[in-house]
Amino acid sequence: QVQLTESGGGLVQTGGSLRLSCTASRDTSDSIMGWFRQAPGKEREFVAGISYSGTIHYADSAKGRFTISRDNAKNTVYLEMNDLTPEDTAVYYCKVNSTDWGQGTQVTVSS
Question: Across the chain, which distance is largest between two alpha carbons, in Å?
Answer without folding.
Answer: 40
